[in-house]
């Protein structure tokens, strides 16, 4: 295992909720709620990994502009990211998507993180190695760019918000590092901590208690594990859970009630069940293939989600073009294969569940389509409702509940 390199960056005047050192870039950019969703070609982002919503204290909501007349903003929204655009949709009761608008998000907006109670949305900019901060207006679902700051490394693939809403985490795939960025009134401050020697870090997020943070690292073949306190990451002992060689750990998700986590390995097309001890340390319990036993083609694993009721785990296969479905043992947390559902498109890079656990949305990146499935929360079965949007180079398709 390689040693984790911890680099604290002390920045004068960069405490949370203060003016960041990096001025806003194109801070007047706002969302046009009248734009058509299918909007021609955009620059494709590089390969990366729903929306991570924190539950912050109320500190005011940034003003994102005057609402357009007649805009009906429902409780359930869908955000998509791909190329340089973020698109916002209303999710209708009948399962349809209604376009609300879109905004230029920067170079390679392949992953998003929402903190709508505080009126914020964050996006990676892979091409410029930045994180963009947007104000979200709940009156019309409008987005206004606040600022962009360095992600602390090259090619950021993932962004998330800690549970307090005071810090944003970035996983820098190209730079092999993770960073902590304080949230400010003006958007984001530059990173106050960067940890390196994390080959192709692909994701970073905090647990529900905001005590521990995990970062799967594809090239390094481990999941880095940290204690988190006061905006500072401290490696645990051991500092990482090793996977099999060339497994390529990509994304991790936590069980809602059991001390278990589930990991999708991109290169080996496997899903691991992990135990979490009281100190936040991970150990491996089980490894299953994400593919049918008779599949002989090429494949890479992409996204993994745990159902809100804790009874099912879903993961996506790029190559087999499917969502694999597992049931979860209520006592051990181990998985049993249920089956595979075709995604009705090519390269299902990202998918998400809505807050009710009754809908699953898949973004098929190479076929430029977003497909909706009804989900039976008693059996885990998926029933296609067909293509609900055409989005060029869709790398992210996430449900989020509006405040």
TrEMBL record:
What organism does this protein naturally occur in? Archangium gephyra
* One Pfam match: Lactonase
Is Repeat set as a keyword in this record? no
Query: Which UniProt keyword terms apply here?
Result: Carbohydrate metabolism, Glucose metabolism
Q: Which family does it belong to?
A: Belongs to the cycloisomerase 2 family.
What GO molecular function annotations does the UniProt record carry, in alphabetical order? 6-phosphogluconolactonase activity
Q: Where is this region: Disordered?
A: 18-69
What is this protein's record name? Lactonase family protein
Q: Does the keyword Chaperone apply?
A: no
Fetch the InterPro entries from UniProt. Cycloisomerase_2, Haem_d1_sf, Lactonase_7-beta_prop, WD40/YVTN_repeat-like_dom_sf
Q: Extract one GO BP annotation from the record.
A: glucose metabolic process
Q: According to its record, what are the GO cellular component terms?
A: cytosol
Q: Which PANTHER family match?
A: 6-PHOSPHOGLUCONOLACTONASE, 6-PHOSPHOGLUCONOLACTONASE-RELATED
């Amino acid at each position: 295992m390689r040693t984790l390199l911890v680099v604290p960056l002390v920045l004068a005047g960069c405490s949370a909720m203060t003016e960041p050192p990096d001025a806003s870039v194109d801070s007047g950019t706002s969302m046009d709620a009248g734009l058509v969703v299918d909007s021609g070609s955009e620059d494709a982002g590089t390969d990366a990994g729903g929306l991570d919503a924190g539950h912050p204290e109320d500190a005011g909501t940034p003003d994102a502009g005057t609402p357009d007349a007649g805009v009906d903003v429902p409780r359930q929204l869908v955000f998509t990211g791909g190329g340089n655009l973020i698109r916002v949709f209303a999710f209708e009761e009948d399962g349809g998507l209604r376009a609300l608008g879109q905004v230029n998000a920067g170079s390679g907006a392949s992953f998003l993180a929402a903190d709508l109670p505080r009126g914020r949305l964050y996006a990676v900019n892979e091409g410029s190695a930045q994180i963009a901060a947007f104000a979200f207006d709940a009156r019309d679902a409008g987005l206004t760019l606040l600022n962009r700051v360095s992600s602390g490394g090259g090619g950021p693939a993932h962004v998330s918000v800690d549970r307090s809403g005071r810090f944003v985490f970035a996983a820098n795939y190209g730079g092999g590092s993770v960073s902590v960025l304080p949230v400010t009134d003006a958007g984001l401050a530059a990173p106050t901590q960067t940890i390196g020697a994390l080959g192709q870090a692909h994701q970073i997020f905090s647990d529900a208690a905001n005590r521990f943070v995990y970062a799967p690292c594809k090239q390094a073949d481990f999941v880095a594990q940290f204690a988190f306190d006061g905006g500072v990451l401290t490696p645990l002992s051991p500092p990482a859970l090793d996977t099999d060689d060339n497994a390529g750990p990509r994304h991790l998700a936590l069980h809602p009630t059991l001390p278990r986590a589930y990991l999708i390995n991109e290169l080996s097309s496997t899903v691991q069940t992990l135990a979490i001890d009281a100190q936040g340390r991970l150990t491996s319990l089980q490894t299953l293939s994400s593919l049918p036993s008779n599949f002989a083609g090429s494949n890479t694993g992409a996204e993994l989600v745990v159902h809100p009721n804790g009874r099912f785990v879903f993961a996506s296969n790029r190559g087999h073009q499917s969502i694999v479905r597992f049931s979860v043992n209520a006592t051990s947390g181990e998985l049993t294969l249920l089956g595979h559902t075709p995604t009705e498109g090519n390269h299902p890079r990202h998918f998400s569940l809505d807050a009710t656990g009754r809908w699953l949305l898949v973004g098929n990146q190479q076929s430029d389509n977003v497909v909706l499935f009804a989900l039976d929360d008693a059996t885990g079965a998926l029933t296609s409702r067909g293509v609900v949007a055409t989005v060029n180079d869709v790398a992210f398709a996430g449900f989020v509940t509006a405040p």
